[in-house]
Write a structure and sequence with these properties.
By secondary structure, the chain is α/β, with parallel strands linked by helices. It has one domain: 3-Layer(aba) Sandwich (Rossmann fold), CATH 3.40.50. The chain is built from seven helices and 14 strands. It has helices at about 35-45, 80-95, 150-165, 180-185, 220-225, 240-250, 275-285; strands at about 30-35, 50-55, 60-65, 70-75, 95, 100, 110-120, 130-135, 175, 190-195, 225, 230-235, 250-260, 265-270. The strands form two sheets. Strands 7-12-10-8-13 form a five-stranded mixed beta barrel, surrounded by four helices. Helix 2 (about 80-95) packs parallel to helix 6.
Length: about 290
Amino acid sequence: MQYPHTELVLNDKGQVYHLGFSPENISDKIILVGDQDRVNLVASFFDSVEHSSQHREFVCKTGMYQGKRISAVSTGIGTDNIDITINELDALFNIDLEKREDKAEKTSLKLIRIGTCGILQPEVPLHSYILSTHALGLDNVAHYYDIPFSAEETELNDAINRSVHLPKAINTYLAKASVSLTNSLRSDQTIEGITITSSGFYGPQGRQLRLPNRTNELNDQLTAFKHGNTRITNFEMESSALFALGKELGHECATICLGIANRPNKDFSKDYSQHMLQLIQYVLDRI
């Protein structure tokens, strides 16, 4: 199959359209961050930097860290941007951009999201490292793809929907993180559980300012949910699409977030900059 120009969109330099990267710019070990400025924080740990670029909100730096070639890429906020990022990163490795054809041999990427999140369990302290075992999508990105979710993913998705009363328009999906990549990030410093990926920051995460919302009791129900030993630990805005699309394309995907708000306790971090730097080094040492 040859991809038409309208489907595989490249810029005038032959680079993938949104990211603005060429295949030689990027490593197969990639740290994904939402915040553009956080790319520089990751790169500050590199022993050397070989590539730097920015196109729109997509910043990329590739360099060496203790003998490992690693890229840091910003995605911006939300699963819509993850849809762009995952598809274009995959194209850089697994599609011949000149011939517009799939490569015969596929490359599996290691994609680790480092983000911030809201904590949903009252006993979990601020600045905890929250490691996602699964992500429940309150967005709709994965529903546009033909993704065969596993029996485990379907069972857990259904269990949450039986316990949590969501607005009728929301059709959730649940995707599992890479077991091997999650294992490499696990330690006595991490707290594990299901991550809720929301389509917004305010109403979709149970916040209410001047607009009334339909999610007033959502957070309490998410906090109370248990399925065996599994519970819901946090809210963020990217991981469901990362896990679902990434896994179906053959990539290993994981998310570890710094908890900066405890929603049940209504407590927000006054300054988490040093904690974020420590989390970045924690991840770099374990890739």
